[in-house]
Amino acid sequence: MSGCGFLSRGAAALAAAATAVRASRVPRIFTGTHRRLHTSLQSCSFAKELFLGNIEQKGVFPFPEISQDELSEINQFVGPVERFFTEEVDSRKIDQEGKIPVDTLEKLKSLGLFGIQVPEEYGGLGLSNTMYARLGEIISMDGSITVTLAAHQAIGLKGIILVGNEEQKAKYLPKLASGEHIAAFCLTEPASGSDAASIQTRATLSEDKKYFILNGSKVWITNGGLASIFTVFAKTEVVDSDGSIKDKITAFIVERDFGGVTNGKPEEKLGIRGSNTCEVHFENTRVPVENVLGEVGGGFKVAMNILNSGRFSMGSVVAGMLKKLIELTAEYACTRKQFNRNLSEFGLIQEKFALMAQKAYVMESMTYLTAGMLDQPGFPDCSIEAAMVKVFSSEAAWQCVSEALQILGGSGYMKDYPYERFLRDSRILLIFEGTNEILRLFIALTGLQHAGRILTSRIKELKRGNVTVVMESIGRKLRDSLGRTVDLGLTGNLGVVHPSLGTIVEEQLVLKRVANILINLYGMTAVLSRASRSIRIGLPNHDHEVLLANMFCVEAYFQNLFSLSQLDKFAPENMDDQIKKVSQQILEKRAYICAHPLNRTS
Amino acid sequence: MGWVQASLLVRGLSRGWGSICSTALSRAATTQVSLQAPRGLHCSAVIHKDDVSLVPRPPEPQRKPIKVPVLHEELFTPSATGEKDKASFLRALRSFEEHSVRKRGHVDFIYLALRKMPEFGVERDLSVYNLLLDVFPKEIFRPRNIIQRIFVHYPRQQECGISVLEQMERYAQVDLELLCCGAKPVLGLLIYVSSRPECWDYSSFICTGVMPNTETEFLLTQIFGRTSYPMLKFLRMKLWLTRFKNINPYPVPRDLPQDPLDLAKLSLRRMEPDLSAKVTVYQMSLPSDSTGTDPIQPHIVGIQSPDQQAALARHNPSKPVFVEGPFPLWLRNKCVYYHILRADLPLPEEEKVEEIPEEWNLYYPMKLDLEYSRSGWDNYEFDLDEVTEGPVFAMCMAGAHDQATLVKWIQGLQETNPILAQVPVVFRLARSTGELLTTSRLEEQSPPHGSPRDQEEDALQAQPQQG
């Protein structure tokens, strides 16, 4: 709890100077030396350490920077892409016709946007995650194009980059990078959303052992109608180490030309209507064994890696959209007059701008912090951070787009303005790439698993009477009592895992709160880090950043306090039992069961 | 109610403990003895308590000992038409008023009329109760001074008034299902029940019956005044009956469907908590007259939920499943019988441990493989011994309880549950229906359907023959 306090106090003091520095234990982290991003070797486990109550400052302070060369490089890309999007892309038409025009797609291909992260030797742009995020901001001006591109490269061809062998990369990546082939990611099935065990699509090895025969249907495949290369997940029979035959998931690269690949008609959707979403059927499709992605039976890990790696970019996409929205709505608010005053003079309208700016600032900070972590050498595991960015940014997007529409009032509801389209488009953000509910569980459980392993081993040592561990614990307690360290309050009074955590997997309401706290903590860290850097290097309007950072930190601090108090089972703030009871009663009857207010008994 | 307490106090002081026994809260002791005891001034209401039977079947008037001299019986003798309905009942009321202008013997008449109400089928009609109250002469029994108010003024008339209200309450429908469904008794319910000794046998009950209305209130104030016992009773009814009206979370419709098929559907739905369960009519009942010499075909209705279907599909085919029954189910005053298809609890070693597959959830870990190294001190749970029963796979209600009929049910089930073709089905049918077996055997060694309660079930069976 004092952790939140630390962050909030730090935030409040930021206006004067980077007091947060003093509150933290590392004496001087802003020494002014220009840290080269690509030289740090420490592994990325900021979020996991957060679960143990430690703030791993090395990973997050100072805010990651890119070199001047890289900056000018990315600016070269950004210019033409931005021009193309503002001048040539007609989002309204795309939305109405439910299709991205061919020439727009061609132009996107020629800009290289289909191979942003494909390494240069395979004909892609080979951009780092940070630069990918930067481009995402521009692309976000049209939701349909964003989703089409994301489905192509964030998940569609990501498998080949991540686990593909040399032949596969050489064979497929160049054409995919140029956009000649479009990729699609085929995982979801009618009976299988996040439940991998219920995948029905099956691949059976042919008798000559050269082919897999693929049969099954996949639903809601983005780019399903356009794609010629599919990353398909199917069950295969695998001989286990103990000799038994088991069904395991395997990933395949499937070309449309293999035959037997058909797709249904594009689905009618609420938003992102220009993107192509449809069913894809595989009927006796013969997939050569060399097209197995990764190992046979190793598809589960492949799918998990692809999904985990694709998420962080949503933060910058939403931030880009919000920045655009702020421009549009500010224009309106400063010109529309009511009672002889501009809308911009009304406090309730001003509030909405502050909210949008704050959310955009936080998600931007989180995204680039995460991107910076991901760009560190090795394969840093930033899946929790990426999931946090996704959850935060998608929810902020929905909230902010709705507020932006509200500023316009009735006009916002009309199709003449783009706001309703933004609203429809942004709704999918909370759903795809793992629904936010599932991601919250992922954040909380992965973190708790990490913390639990370390803490249970510590308990074991304590029980065994390991003197150093005992002394360490006592020492830590002593230091804690002197108020010098940060205890995030997540590990209980004794600093151990609470016994009731055995059933924690089932306590979804608790997990949600843990995830919310962690997301807030990560957001606070990101804005503090970024705002401190802005002050230090004297970026323009850094005082504005400090205001935003302060606003967010205070708000998040109180939210966290509330969530922490709710974690106590018997706290008055904790309504879990009642919530569960109410929903049980409703679900038992499958209806709203209150009597009508007009009912009488006599 | 300050005045009530005050009057009770005064009465207690003046008459001692004995009279207090006659007050509402302690009628239990007197209920038993007063059947034979001469009707005292203050326990005259008690004498009619024997009418009170809170079992779901309507009280049979002729069984009740008639203590009151049958003064006005002739008024209720069926007229030429022989119809016993509301009109003739009202005619009787009117003829009493014509018969005795001064309303002599109106208390006896009202008691008689109360007993006759079920016969005329007006026991649930509020307007009839109001008319009955209207028989009382007005203004005479109203207490006019403080002394009259403290001591019960015209006790016999007041108690007669209370009887009218009590009968309204009694025909409030009583749901014995509450006993089974385990509705939580509210405090008020307990207080109310404790004030009604006749309900002490039933730990909880429910009234949805005749609710007095403002006209009743108006009549009572006219007859007995605001500060009287019938008025108190009225206020209590107003207070509690509304609260009890919807206390049953599983209400039974007041008018049960007459068609045995509909009744069976209703009962099955009532027993099956899963709303996804599907009711299937395996066989319609065929009336005997249309088929002529063919044997009558009883109806067979079954219910099975998707979960039960899945459980049956998982059933080990080498183990038998059992058709058991008939078991009784009471719906208001009707008893229906059902059969279940069940299996024995699988042996512990046979039970497949549901493992969490390693690669199951694409997004988050389904279990944290942590070693908590817990000891007994970390177990906060209460020690509960839960007796698990074998799974029930389906339920059915049929017009006949013989094996031939139930085989048809199993055959019908087989269409949706192909595993039944491989599983041995054992019929374990009781020769009679449930708890009635013992009485019928003990008393008369009669064939199973001879017991009185089976008549309804027989009627159920017989209906297809008649219809």
TrEMBL record, chain A:
Its cofactor is FAD. It holds the Pfam family Acyl-CoA_dh_M. Keywords: Acetylation, FAD, Flavoprotein, Membrane, Mitochondrion, Mitochondrion inner membrane, Oxidoreductase, Phosphoprotein, Signal, Transit peptide. It catalyses: decanoyl-CoA + oxidized [electron-transfer flavoprotein] + H(+) = (2E)-decenoyl-CoA + reduced [electron-transfer flavoprotein]; oxidized [electron-transfer flavoprotein] + hexadecanoyl-CoA + H(+) = (2E)-hexadecenoyl-CoA + reduced [electron-transfer flavoprotein]; octadecanoyl-CoA + oxidized [electron-transfer flavoprotein] + H(+) = (2E)-octadecenoyl-CoA + reduced [electron-transfer flavoprotein]; (4Z,7Z,10Z,13Z,16Z,19Z)-docosahexaenoyl-CoA + oxidized [electron-transfer flavoprotein] + H(+) = (2E,4Z,7Z,10Z,13Z,16Z,19Z)-docosaheptaenoyl-CoA + reduced [electron-transfer flavoprotein]. Residues 75-180 form the Acyl-CoA dehydrogenase/oxidase N-terminal domain. It is a peripheral membrane protein. The keyword Repressor does not apply. Residues 1-23 form the signal peptide. Residues 184-284 form the Acyl-CoA oxidase/dehydrogenase middle domain. It comes from the Eukaryota. Residues 503-591 form the ACAD9/ACADV-like C-terminal domain. Homodimer. Interacts with NDUFAF1 and ECSIT. Part of the mitochondrial complex I assembly/MCIA complex that comprises at least the core subunits TMEM126B, NDUFAF1, ECSIT and ACAD9 and complement subunits such as COA1 and TMEM186. Interacts with TMEM70 and TMEM242. Belongs to the acyl-CoA dehydrogenase family. As part of the MCIA complex, primarily participates in the assembly of the mitochondrial complex I and therefore plays a role in oxidative phosphorylation. This moonlighting protein also has a dehydrogenase activity toward a broad range of substrates with greater specificity for long-chain unsaturated acyl-CoAs. However, in vivo, it does not seem to play a primary role in fatty acid oxidation. In addition, the function in complex I assembly is independent of the dehydrogenase activity of the protein. This is Complex I assembly factor ACAD9, mitochondrial. It comes from Cricetulus griseus (Chinese hamster).
From TrEMBL, chain B:
It comes from the Eukaryota. Residues 441-454 have a biased composition (Basic and acidic residues). GO terms for biological process: cell surface receptor protein serine/threonine kinase signaling pathway; innate immune response. It is found in: Cytoplasm; Mitochondrion; Nucleus. One of its GO terms (cellular component) is mitochondrion. Pfam families: ECSIT_C, ECSIT_N. Its main location: cytoplasm. Residues 305-430 form the ECSIT C-terminal domain. Residues 438-467 are annotated as: Disordered. Keywords: Cytoplasm, Immunity, Innate immunity, Mitochondrion, Nucleus, Transit peptide. As part of the MCIA complex, involved in the assembly of the mitochondrial complex I. PANTHER family: ECSIT EVOLUTIONARILY CONSERVED SIGNALING INTERMEDIATE IN TOLL PATHWAYS, EVOLUTIONARILY CONSERVED SIGNALING INTERMEDIATE IN TOLL PATHWAY, MITOCHONDRIAL. Belongs to the ECSIT family. Interacts with MAP3K1, SMAD4 and TRAF6. Interacts with SMAD1 only after BMP4-treatment. Part of the mitochondrial complex I assembly/MCIA complex that comprises at least the core subunits TMEM126B, NDUFAF1, ECSIT and ACAD9 and complement subunits such as COA1 and TMEM186. Interacts with NDUFAF1. Interacts with ACAD9. Interacts with TRIM59. Interacts with TMEM70 and TMEM242. Interacts (when ubiquitinated) with NF-kappa-B subunits RELA and NFKB1. Interacts with RIGI, IFIT1 and MAVS; these interactions promote RLR-mediated type I IFN induction. This is Evolutionarily conserved signaling intermediate in Toll pathway, mitochondrial. The lineage of its organism: Eukaryota, Metazoa, Chordata, Craniata, Vertebrata. The gene is Ecsit.
